[in-house]
Every structure is written in structure tokens, then in C-alpha cells.
Fold:
Amino acid sequence: MSQSVYLYVCDTLSDWEPGHAIAALNQPFGQRDPGSLQVRTVAATADPVRTAGGVRILPDLTVEEAARERPAMLILPGAGTWDQAVHKPVIGFAKSLLDKDIPVAAICGATVALAAAGMLDDRDHTSNDPSMLDGPGYAGAGRYRPAPAVTDRGLITAGAAHPAEFAREILRTLEVYEPDTLENWYGLYTTGERAYFDKFMAAV
Structure:
């Protein structure tokens, strides 16, 4: 039986930010345990959402429904609406998952929402820029790291320009690939070099 990886979806979702990760999770090639993980979309309500790229998504679950289950991970992509109250339930859900040692991955605007909720204060983290996080509720400036993606105690954070690094941390945390296979996957999608493709396919 597969375990769910929840992808939170909302209006203005930045399509490119979780793209590498969800494609790799749903593609069995090279995986250590193909079919063991399934991406399911979660939203504040059951209503369709429209991404920044204009893609219409009908969520699989609401946050309320998802909170009754135990996923493998929750992924929070960037969006232009993270300052809205509609997202408070999923922030609370994310905190409850981390408290249970279930990983959460946040990129771009989602890191700002976590910062405002005080969830970055005691973990190393990153974002698009440290100034984005500076606001009420955030006291974690000393833990900010100027890196494409950072993982600390189950929390993955990344900047908007680094979807491949974000995906690499997600895939590493979930142990989707063997370590060498993961590095070849990453090399392929960051350089486009044929050598990485050949090495990755050799593991299939």
C-alpha cells in the first residue's frame, strides 16, 4: 500500500516550484521502492484552484480531511496568497506534522508563512531572501542560511529559483532513490549532461 505525500494547492500556486519533486515521486524509474509513495493534492476547501500558470486543479482532499491521516510528507509550494487567512489551517497542520516527526517541505512564499507562525525560529532555514522573512512572528534570523535549500530536523526550505535543489532534499528525505541515483538525477536536471542521464538510466 502506498503512503501519501500531500501537495498543498491554492490559487496562484507557483507551478514550477514543486514540479521536479512531484514528477519524480510519481515516476517509478530508478526508485528504491516503486509505488510506495503517491502524491495527493490538498486544499483549504474542496473547490477547484487555479495555479499561476493557469492550470485548474480539483483537490483530492481538504486540509480537514488530510489531518485525519498520517502522510509521508507535506509539500507547501509558493503562491501569491500566503498572507491570507485561508491558509492558517494548513500552517497548523504543518506544525502538527513536524511535532510528530513527519517532514514538511516549504518553498518561496510558503517559507514566509511558516516564519510568521514562528516555525523557523529554532531550525536552520532559507528562503528567497532573508528580508522576505523579517516581520511579526519571526525571530529566527540567526538560523537563516544563504543556501538554495536547507533541511533541518524534518523541515525543508528553499528559494523560488531552486526547484531542483528543493526536489533533491525532498527525494533524499523520503529516500526515494539510492544516494548515487539521486545525485545523477540532480546532475541531469541541473546540467542537462548526457553522462548523468546514462548513469541514472543504468540504475533503472
Q: What stands out?
A: The mean pLDDT is 97. The longest helix spans residues 179-191. The beta strands are 3-8, 37-43, 49-50, 56-57, 61-62, 73-76, 104-107, 149-152, 155-158.
